[in-house]
Design a protein that fits this description.
Number of strands: 0
Number of domains: 2
Strand content: under 5%
Shape: flat
Number of helices: 5
Order of helices and strands: HHHHH
């Protein structure tokens, strides 16, 4: 690996450990207290670094396994970020911001890649490549349905 890839990998590992311990600390402290909120912010921030570095690491060594791990990182960040955004937008007049829609879009891309990978692995290789086009559009349709269904939950009942 290159120096940039090695540095990114160590940053990814360090942020992962920080997320693990910050999440554990937030879990063990009194809900809503200053220490809980501070550790929760550390958790969300470190999960953002984990997700971002996972995408960078995929660029350095693309492959199905790295793509799968990148999608897992995106899912993990999406759930941490959506929880943070729901709690930070408790007032009824709060409207979704562009960052909320970016997160939903990134979630949709991750869902599509996971479903497409499952389709390639189990459907196309077992049934055959003759149904490849149909299963591609089915995974695309399923991605849209999952994404649209998750938007109200993500936006905390804004709709």
């Amino acid at each position: 690996m290159t120096l940039v890839a090695d540095t990114t990998m160590w940053l990814h590992i360090g942020a992962g450990f920080l997320a693990l311990f910050a999440g554990l600390g937030a879990f063990l402290t009194k809900k809503g207290g200053p220490r809980h909120r501070r550790l929760g912010r550390w958790y969300v921030s470190s999960m953002a670094v984990v997700s971002g570095t996972a995408l960078v690491l995929y660029v350095f060594a693309p492959g199905f396994f790295r793509l799968f791990l990148s999608c897992v990182a995106i899912f993990s960040f999406y759930f941490a970020f959506s929880g943070y955004r729901v709690l930070s937008r408790k007032r009824p007049g709060d409207e979704p911001e562009p960052i909320d829609w970016v997160a939903v879009g990134l979630f949709a891309v991750a869902i599509f890649h996971i479903l497409n990978g499952i389709r390639l692995l189990f459907v196309d290789l077992t049934i055959g490549l003759t149904v490849q086009d149909k299963t591609f559009y089915l995974s695309l349709l399923l991605t849209g349905a999952i994404t649209v269904a998750s938007i109200p939950t993500f936006l905390g009942g804004a709709f």
